[in-house]
Amino acid sequence: MNRNYIHTAAALVLVLSLIMGYSVQDVHASDQQISENQQQQDGLINRVKQTDRRVKQIKAAVDKKQEKLAESREKSKWMKAEIKRLNAQIDSRDKLLKKRFRAMYVNGGNMNYIDVLLGSESFGDFIDRMFALKTISDNDQKLLTAQKQDQANRAAQQEELAKEQKQLEDGLTELNDLKDELLKKEEDQRSQLARLKKEASKIKRKKKMKKDEEKEVSEAQTHAIAFENASDSNAVFIKPTQGYVTSGFGKRSFDNGFHPGIDIANSEGTPVHAAAGGVVFRAYHSSSYGNAVMISHKFKGKLFTTVYAHLSGYEVATGERVAKGQVIGKMGNTGESFGSHLHFELYEGQWNPPPHNGAVDPMKFIQ
């Protein structure tokens, strides 16, 4: 039997030492993390698609605006040629008007139309001179009107050209800025997506490790029970430590959560005893239980499991047989704990991670 004990203990140590660094209680959290991660990925993928569509729309708008700007520049060339033509007409009229004004100045500032008419040699000459004077007057008026109109047209065309080009250039700058902003946003979204995918792969790997761990823990406990079969006990459980119960088994009123055991409070270092004889199938540290010991028991052919958590330290090893009342550790405040106490769980059957199927009220079994 000692040889069997050594072989069993060695096997348990080998199996459980591989999984000490991980918490079986995290297995079920992985599914939720994967689901949340996938939801984030789906949402981000939709946003990336929306951003991509928006970028394409902006690029199309930029192309269209650039086409209009190219057309405006062609129009600008035509308008500059037209302005050049108007400037030539204005210069030509300026010279003609200046010549007319000099002639009028030489004649005292006004043309003496009466002298011209009275100087007629005949009635026919009179009529010709009258029409000639009228033609000169009308031409002067037309020159002045055309000059003013051309000057106004030139100013309007120059203003229109400048305004149109400024609007197009401002619009193009705004669109390019928006395009750059959207491309940066799309790049950030794709980086986030890559991060989420990497995180999802990490969670899945961790989940697989947890499932493998859970399987190994179950197998380890099965080995422990197989070893314990040789010493079936009729003993009942004892209270594992001295102190007062601060939290009972079941639903808690303050947070509506399920408490799978009882909490017994006392000063740190208070001895913690095995509630019954059995085999330690796990002595380890986890983020939630802190320093913890799990023991398998067999009474009248039935399997029970006890859990002792938040210990300051433990004094037994995986695979070790313990006697009822044996000190297995000291009360502490490790893991998710708020004050020195022992968190004690009792299972009919094997220990199970959340939702802790099989957990029963220890107070109903303690002598």
Automatic annotation (TrEMBL):
Keywords: Coiled coil, Signal. Residues 189-202 have a biased composition (Basic and acidic residues). The keyword Chloroplast does not apply. It comes from the Bacteria. Residues 148-168, 189-217 are annotated as: Disordered. Residues 48-89 form a coiled coil. Residues 83-153 form the Peptidoglycan hydrolase PcsB coiled-coil domain. One of its GO terms (molecular function) is metalloendopeptidase activity. Residues 258-350 form the M23ase beta-sheet core domain. PANTHER family: MUREIN HYDROLASE ACTIVATOR ENVC (PTHR21666:SF270), PEPTIDASE-RELATED (PTHR21666). This is Peptidase, M23/M37 family. The lineage of its organism: Bacteria, Bacillati, Bacillota, Bacilli, Bacillales.
